[in-house]
Amino acid sequence: MTKADVHIQVNDSLRIRKNVLLTAIDITHLLKDYHEYLIIKKRKEKLMNNLHSLMEQIKKFGEKVYKTDFGVLSSEYSVSKQKVESGKTKEEERLEAELRSIERKLKSL
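Given the sequence above, the corresponding structure tokens read:
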């Protein structure tokens, strides 16, 4: 058997060509996005490895800090608390009394 050429008539061939080209463009965009995804994935992997190594270093330094004896602070370096006066000053009391008297006068009007 020999292969024979077969021809098929396609209605609205321009629309089909346009759809094929638009699909090819979409595939190209998808391939570009996939390539960017791979780049981001590799970068993330490098950053995660870097983070892991930094965490290990922090852990080692933390162990050294816990083993270090800094001594005990003596009481002479303790912070002394001062009493804060919560009472009102004479000026504030005078102004409040004056305000009350003005309010009474306004109510009587």
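The mean pLDDT is 85. Try to locate this feature in the token string yourself.
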